[in-house]
Design brief:
It is a single chain. By secondary structure, this protein is of the alpha+beta class. It contains two helices and nine strands, in the order ααβββββββββ. It has a single domain, classed as Lipocalin, CATH 2.40.128.
Length: 126
């Protein structure tokens, strides 16, 4: 193998690792930030418009939430299973918000989560 072939092979491998590094965890990257709940729908019922609550996901795996305009009233942690699209929340208070949420949609501006009979719609505000 000549030196030019080795360089091309190394360049190809570097490009593959570079692309994989940026595409392997796009979901977690999109999750970090502050999200407002704008709608909640219980199975087979009319959706309820609701702009009263927020969640703030931090890069360090912590989460805060509460009423919009107030200081956070709930604190906890979050983990994300990118493979199975499962978001797990654990609050210090140990309330009904804890548990696993299926991610229906997650991008830079919108998130839709499903837990039990509820579908929760979020909009990213920062």
């Amino acid at each position: 193998m000549n030196q030019n072939s080795v360089r091309k092979s190394l360049l190809f491998l570097f490009a593959c690792f570079f692309v994989l590094g940026f595409t392997s965890k796009p979901k977690g990257k999109h999750l970090v930030g502050t999200w407002e709940i704008y709608k909640i729908q219980k199975k087979n019922k009319t959706p309820k418009e609701n702009r009263e609550k927020f969640l703030q996901f931090n890069e360090d795996g912590t989460v805060q939430g509460g009423s919009i305009g107030d200081a956070p009233s709930k604190n906890g942690t979050w983990t994300l299973d990118d493979t199975n699209l499962i978001l797990t929340l654990n609050t210090a208070e140990g309330n009904n918000d804890d548990g696993e949420y299926s991610i229906v949609k997650l991008n830079k501006r919108e998130m839709i989560l499903l837990k039990d009979a509820y579908t929760i719609f979020f909009e990213k505000i920062k």
